């Protein structure tokens, strides 16, 4: 018998080369590429395995023990299988066909007991078979015919189920996916509402002076009015004019505004449109006008830079009329205030106008109810964990209260106002920095205070729905993708999970990576988030046959172990363009051999000591692997890398040590780094040369 090459054998089995190669890996069969020859033994091992998949799992044991079946019988089954596949070749959706499963020995036509079924996003093979009233073995066999390897308990996605249904002449309806439970609002009675400060967003074209205006107002109307006060940057602040307050969202540009609107939440009551008097209405000015119009938010125009000799406020007003904003002094309704952010002129008038518009808008809220509002900014702080700037829109937020923000559960541990002062409660329109969330929510997420049990349950439900949605998008067992890769024998999509230390870089990296998509390979970001790389991230990458990219974060121990087991590639970077370069190179097959990092071990810092001349020494316990005195080291705090460098000294008791194994204590000094803290994790690694692949 001539030896079969991988791709030939794949063809014979009607599988894609990639699929077969994955199977070979699973079965520990050695091969180099799709051109490699396979031994008879390997071929039989694969065939046996496929046959086993056709049997219900509880029968598999039995099958194993009955393994000594005659070769005759084996052949028969295979023939039957190929026959049924040949029949399928000419299949069109909706045709019913003869299907002889291994257990339906008499070639009876397999017919479903129903004409129509309704399923959710996915269904297990067992349940599916039950719904149709068909032997599960028959369903598994059909799935294999379609290139999907699934056992009884595996889930198939809705699309696969539909195509499968068509084979049995059954119409498969898909239930609308459950929407993540809305964070239910409480209705307020009109008599409960009282005035609250207006929330203002500053928008405008690049360089027209948004930041300068926000800074000028902050200096004039926040710090100056209260001697010695220093404003913190928390993404929002409150200014005072004539004893009344105005809340400014301190994120210039309409990104924040649109992100919130995209989540169906609206925090802004009034938009200040900054237009430079020397430049006039520009593309982003028009964009800002359109956003405000779409959101039904009133616009006040700040005609900025009037100090400039070539400023021409009338020209600005003229141009604004073309976009439906007619200045009051020209008989229209739009308030236009000439200002100079640099000279701090016109600011008071601008703020008075904001209050005037606010009065007309009747901006009110009920302070006496569980708080509801919006996340303005959020990040993973190296020392404090998840930190979110939140704007209370209704009710009063108090320390100790449980809440759900987006899909994140939290219990307010501490709150700071925009001056960094600790506060115990925050009423409507008050921006606060909140500690105590279990994870980092997204900017624009709505938050709602509710009782703890409910908050945990709601957050859990929303997360499940979100994860299911992500899994669905990741194309797990999606026929489209399988067929594509089967036909090409190559992967057509590069699925990536991104984790990073701050939302901004995660988003930037995601967008840049997606832009690398070419006609040949599409880059999909199937999940991105802030925080260390976790086991769930690995599971997500496994489900979608993807890779993980970490930016300034590391996998935790469980994640690393899972990644090893599932053979998931994790790549970590500290510079965005390096990540982009690598992915680009992998996509064009141009990766050079590289020195790959190998993690040697981890240690936990239990105490730190200041030693004259040597600096700070970390008293550690080696929790995993080992540490060697030549290793490189990474300091990890709350899943975030805070330092990378070399080891200066490694000691056991008083003596220098070459290496210290898991389970032992040691003292570690780092080169040029003394900021080690208790509870830090030290990760030791080294480099080996390997051929690169992504
Ligand atoms: N002469 C003059 N220059 C101003 C005034 N306001 C801002 N500028 C200048 O205009 C330039 C842009 O100002 P920014 O405040 O950075 O503008 P921005 O709209 O926030 O810009 P982006 O954040 O890049 O969109 C800076 O060089 C400011 O010094 C003003 O009232 N008069």
Entry keywords:
single chain, about 700 residues, alpha+beta, Arc Repressor Mutant, subunit A, Rossmann fold, 6 domains, 6-stranded mixed sheet, 6-stranded antiparallel barrel, 19 helices, 35 strands, about 30% helix, globular, binds guanosine-5'-triphosphate, nucleotide-binding, IF2_N, translation initiation factor activity, P-loop_NTPase
What's a concise summary of this model?
With 694 residues, the chain is an alpha+beta fold.
Protein architecture, described:
The chain is α+β, with helices and mostly antiparallel strands and 694 residues long. The chain has six domains: 4-49, Arc Repressor Mutant, subunit A; 63-174, no CATH class; 191-365, P-loop containing nucleotide triphosphate hydrolases (Rossmann fold); 372-469, Elongation Factor Tu (Ef-tu), domain 3, CATH 2.40.30; 479-591, Translation initiation factor IF- 2, domain 3 (Rossmann fold), CATH 3.40.50.10050; 597-689, Translation factors (Elongation Factor Tu (Ef-tu), domain 3), CATH 2.40.30. It contains 19 helices and 35 strands. Strands 9-10-8-11-12-13 form a six-stranded mixed sheet, with helices on both faces. α16 links the parallel β24 (493-500) and β25. α17 runs parallel beside α18 (557-566). Residues 56-107, 224-231 and 473-490 have low confidence and may be disordered. Residues 204, 206-212, 252, 304-305, 307-308, 340-342 line the site of guanosine-5'-triphosphate (GTP). Residues 42-75 have a biased composition (Basic and acidic residues). It comes from Metallumcola ferriviriculae. One of its GO terms (molecular function) is GTPase activity. This is Translation initiation factor IF-2.
């Amino acid at each position: 018998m001539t030896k079969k090459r991988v791709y030939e054998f794949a063809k014979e089995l009607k599988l894609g080369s990639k699929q077969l190669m994955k199977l070979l890996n699973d079965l520990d069969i050695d091969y180099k590429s799709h051109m490699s020859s396979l031994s008879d033994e390997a071929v039989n091992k694969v065939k046996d395995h496929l046959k086993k998949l056709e049997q219900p799992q509880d029968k598999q044991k039995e099958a194993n023990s009955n393994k000594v079946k005659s070769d005759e019988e084996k052949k028969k089954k295979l023939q039957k299988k190929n026959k049924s596949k040949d029949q399928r070749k000419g299949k069109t959706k909706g045709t019913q066909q003869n299907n002889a499963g291994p257990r339906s020995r008499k070639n009876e036509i397999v017919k479903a007991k129903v004409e129509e079924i309704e399923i959710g996003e996915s269904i297990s093979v067992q349940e599916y078979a039950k719904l149709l009233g068909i032997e599960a073995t028959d369903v598994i066999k059909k799935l294999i015919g379609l290139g999907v390897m699934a056992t009884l308990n595996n889930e198939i996605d809705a699309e696969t189920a539909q195509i499968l249904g068509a084979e049995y002449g059954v119409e498969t309806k898909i239930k609308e996916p459950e929407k993540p439970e809305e964070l239910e609002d409480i209705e307020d009675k009109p008599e409960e509402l009282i005035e609250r400060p207006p929330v203002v967003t500053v928008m405008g074209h690049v360089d027209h002076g948004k930041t300068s205006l926000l800074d000028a107002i902050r200096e004039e109307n926040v710090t100056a009015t209260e001697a010695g006060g220093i404003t913190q940057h928390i993404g929002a602040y409150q200014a005072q004019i004539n004893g009344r307050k105005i809340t400014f969202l301190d994120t210039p540009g309409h990104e924040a505004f649109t992100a919130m609107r995209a989540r169906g939440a609206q925090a802004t009551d009034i938009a200040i449109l900054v237009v430079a008097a020397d430049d006039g209405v520009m593309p982003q000015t028009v964009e800002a006008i359109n956003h405000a119009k779409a959101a039904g938010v009133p616009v006040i125009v700040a005609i900025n830079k009037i100090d400039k000799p070539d400023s021409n406020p009338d020209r600005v007003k003229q141009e604004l009329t073309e976009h439906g904003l007619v200045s009051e002094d020209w008989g229209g309704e739009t308030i236009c205030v000439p200002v100079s952010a640099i000279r701090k002129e016109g600011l008071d008038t601008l703020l008075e106008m904001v209050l005037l518009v606010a009065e007309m808008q009747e901006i009110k809220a009920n302070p006496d109810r569980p708080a509801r509002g919006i996340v303005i900014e959020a990040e993973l702080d190296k020392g404090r964990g998840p930190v979110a700037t939140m704007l209370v829109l209704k009710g009063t937020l108090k320390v100790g209260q449980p809440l759900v923000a987006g899909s994140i559960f939290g219990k307010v541990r501490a709150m700071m106002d925009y001056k960094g002062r600790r506060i115990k409660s925050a009423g409507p329109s008050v921006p606060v920095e909140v500690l105590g969330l279990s994870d980092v929510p997204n900017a624009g997420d709505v938050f709602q205070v509710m009782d703890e049990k409910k908050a945990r349950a709601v957050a859990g439900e929303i997360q499940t729905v979100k994860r299911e949605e992500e899994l669905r998008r990741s194309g797990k067992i999606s026929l489209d993708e399988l067929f594509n890769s089967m036909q090409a024998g190559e992967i057509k999509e590069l699925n990536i999970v991104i984790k990073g230390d701050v939302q901004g870089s995660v988003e930037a990296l995601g967008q840049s990576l997606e832009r690398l998509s070419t006609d040949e390979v599409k880059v999909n970001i199937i999940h991105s988030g802030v925080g260390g790389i976790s086991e769930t991230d690995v599971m997500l990458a496994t489900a979608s046959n993807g890779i993980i990219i970490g930016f300034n974060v590391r996998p935790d121990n469980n994640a690393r172990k899972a990644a090893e087991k599932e053979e998931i590639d994790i790549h970590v970077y500290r510079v965005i363009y390096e990540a982009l370069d690598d992915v680009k190179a992998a996509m064009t097959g141009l990766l050079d051999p590289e020195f790959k990092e190998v993690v040697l071990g981890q240690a936990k810092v239990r105490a730190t000591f200041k030693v004259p001349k040597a600096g700070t020494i970390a008293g550690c316990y080696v929790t995993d692997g080992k540490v060697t005195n030549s290793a490189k080291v990474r300091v990890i705090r709350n899943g975030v890398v805070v330092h990378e460098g070399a080891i200066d000294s490694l000691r056991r008791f008083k003596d220098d040590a070459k290496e210290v194994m898991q389970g032992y204590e040691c003292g570690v000094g780092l080169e040029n780094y003394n900021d080690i803290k208790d509870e830090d994790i030290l990760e030791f690694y080294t480099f080996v040369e390997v051929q690169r692949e992504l």
